[in-house]
Structures are given as structure tokens and as C-alpha cells.
Amino acid sequence: MKNLIATGIFLCTALLTSAQIDSSLFKRQAVDTTKMSLSMDAVYNRPFLGIGKSPVSLGGYAEVNWQYMGTDGVTDGHQFQMRRLTLFVASTIGKRIKFLTEIELEEGGKEIAIEFAAIDVEMHPLLNLRGGIVMNPIGAFNQNHDGPKWEFTDRPISATQMLPATWSNAGFGLFGKTFSDQWMFGYELYLTGGFDNTIIDNEENKTFLPAAKANSERFEESASGTPLFTGKVEVRHSKIGELGLSYMAGAYNTFLDDGIEVDSKRRLDVFAVDFNTSLPKINTTLTGEFAWVMVDVPSTYTQQYGDKQLGGFVDIVQPVVKRRIFGWDGAVVNVACRLEYVDWNKGTFTETGGNIAEDIWSIMPGISFRPTGQTVMRLNYRYQEQRDLLGNDPALTGGFSFGISSYF
């Protein structure tokens, strides 16, 4: 698989290098920001580079960061990180038949993953078929996660440590959308592979959905032998904003072995609500997402494995300057703040009735500079408190981070 991906990267690089021979063949396909769109459109709502009359377009983004963080006075010092390099390849195969793939390299190429690789067959605006490796539309961040779209160097805690950010699986689904005056409605329905027993058997020693991402075999074989269902409906009003409701559910454990029942069928259910809006006149942008996770944990497990989790985040972004800066027309300076909270174990101890803590909250103010809409430089400060299972005095984390993220 790595050789296949490496070959694909080499071909993409070769195509981009050929621009030095005849740059007239290449044309940037800019995103139409005046057109209404939904979170479900994020997979295609990216800048691509067209190659002459070829049906293939290329794109991608990169993220590089510096951070200095400390917890309870202990720090690892200055850290420099090439968080990720992501490549997009899109192709129009035929009339109303498209293909797009997203390949992500993290930590300097240590991790290579195909996050999206699907064929779309467009039969009707309200009825389209998608098959391949798809991103399960739980919440909005999972699909709309590109670094250049956000004013913060870190991805939200709730989307990465409670929900498994960039969670994708092999499967099939239907999607569609429609317009009516200032309203837009969209839906997505998928049946895919899913989770496995690592969500309650992992190095974190707690219920931890992101642990299932380490299982690359999920693209070929489902641990439970049953499909994971993910559904979402979205509605947007041009003057009000967008609201999304999503649900993901299915069995996660191996309960049958060669037709013999070896365990009880255990399932998980995830509900999520997301929203985004822009306040008129002052142009303040509000983006938020909240999710509830319910997991059927065996009674033989200790109470440190929670059967209920909840968490979410809210981003507030306020443009303060928009003018020509350092030769960039229409450059923007934003001030921003992210508020986030996660409770990994919602409930009480059976023996005492006392609250099970194990929660975290964080506030992250920052300032960002956008020379263009496709590039962002951002400086953030994080203040965070995290409590353990017993609710002891919280671990205090604080520090600065600076990063650059850009489409290319």
C-alpha cells in the first residue's frame, strides 16, 4: 500500500513539475465563495489546479507549527512540527461521474493514510451514489477539517480525542441537496465498515473511539460483520446560517466467529449537532459542534470505561482589519477564540454516587493573518484544565503555538 501511495505522490509531483515546461497548461480552479454550500460540500469545495484539457485536477494543503507548552510547570521546550501534508486528486470520469481522493502524510511521512477515495455517480440533485473510502458525516469537522479553513493550529479536542477526526471507512451511500429561495437542504446516508473492540481495549485505558483508526484492516473487513450506519441532514438559510444533525450507530465488537456466538452484540450510538453562522454588519463568525457518545461497555469492565461521553467546541472569529497589507489586496487580520469541553466519563460511581470526573476544558484565544483566503498564519495561546477520574486537582496546561497552513 505504501508503495502504491508513493507512486501516486511521485506522479502528482511529476505533473506539477511539468508546469515549468509549459505553465499555460495549468489553471487554478478557484472556489466560488459567493455560492451557498453545506458542510457536505467540503470534500469538493477546495482549490484545484487544472491541467490543460485533462479531466484530472490536483490540489492539497500543508501545515507547519511551532509550539511551547507546559503542564504543571513541566515543559518539553520548543517543538517544531510538520503536522501534515495532504494531496487531492480529482477527476471527471464521464458525464456526472466523478472521482476524488485525499491522501494525508502526517509527522513527516511517518503516517500515510487514504482519507477519502470515492466515486460519485450523480443521477439527480437529490439522489447520488457514492462508493469507496468515505468520511462518515458525524458532526461537521470530520468532513470540513482542512487546516487553511481554521484560525487555530490545533484541531478541536472533542473532534480528535472523543470523536475520531478524519474518520473514514469503506462503504456506500446516497446523498443529495436541493434549493428553495434562500434555503438549502442536504442529506447523506452511508453504510460502511466501522469500529472494533479497541475502543474499550486500548492504551488510553478508557473508552476511546479514536483508537479504532489504528486498524487499517477496517477498509477490508468489519470486526462486527455488520455495517456502521451514518446519517446526516443539513439545512442552511442564506441570512441565518447552517444547522446539521447527524447520527452514527452500529455494533463494534466481534460477536460471531465462524457462525458461533462468542460474545454479546455490543453497539455504540453517536449523536451530533453542528452549526455555523455569520453575524450581519460586524461579520463575526460562529462555528460550533457538540456530540454525545453512548457505548455498550461490558459489565465486567471497571467504571473507568465510560458508557456515556459528551463534548464540543465553539469558535468565535472577528475580522478587525481588511485592506491591502504588505502588497496583498484584501488581506484580513482576525481575532479569534475557541472554547471547548469534553467529559470522557459522564456518570457517577456505583459505590458512592459521587461524580466521575475525567473531563477537560480549554480556552484558546488567538490572532490570525490571511494574506489570501487560501493561506493563514495564526498565533494562539492555550489555557487548559484536565481532571482525572477521581476529580483531583486539575492538571494545568498553558503555552503558545504559531503555525502556517496553506492550500497549494
Gist of the model:
The chain has 408 residues and is mainly beta. It has helices at residues 2-17, 157-162; strands at 26-29, 48-51, 56-71, 74-94, 97-106, 111-124, 127-135, 168-180, 183-192, 228-237, 241-251, 256-257, 260-261, 267-278, 285-295, 308-325, 328-343, 359-372, 375-386, 395-407. The protein is globular.
In terms of structural class, how would the helical and strand content be classed? mainly beta
Helix tally equals: 2
> Oligomer, anyone?
single chain
Give the CATH level 1 class. Answer: Mainly Beta
CATH architecture: Beta Barrel
Rounded average pLDDT:
90
Gap from first CA to last CA: 25 Å
Which sequence of strands runs across the widest sheet?
3-4-5-6-7-8-9-10-11-14-15-16-17-18-19-20
Percent strand: over 45%
How many domain units?
1
Overall form: globular
**Rounded radius of gyration (Å):** 22 Å
Q: Say what the CATH topology is.
A: Porin
SS elements, strand count: 20
Give keywords.
Porin; 408 residues; disordered N terminus
Task: Give a verbal description of the structure.
This protein has 408 residues and is mostly beta strands. It has a single domain, classed as Porin, CATH 2.40.160. Helix content is 5%, strand content 54%. The protein has 2 helices and 20 strands. It has helices at 2-17, 157-162, and strands at residues 26-29, 48-51, 56-71, 74-94, 97-106, 111-124, 127-135, 168-180, 183-192, 228-237, 241-251, 256-257, 260-261, 267-278, 285-295, 308-325, 328-343, 359-372, 375-386, 395-407. The strands form 2 sheets. Strands 3-4-5-6-7-8-9-10-11-14-15-16-17-18-19-20 form a 16-stranded antiparallel beta barrel. A two-stranded antiparallel ribbon has the order 12-13. A hairpin with a 2-residue loop joins strand 6 and strand 7. The model is unreliable at 1-26 (pLDDT under 50).
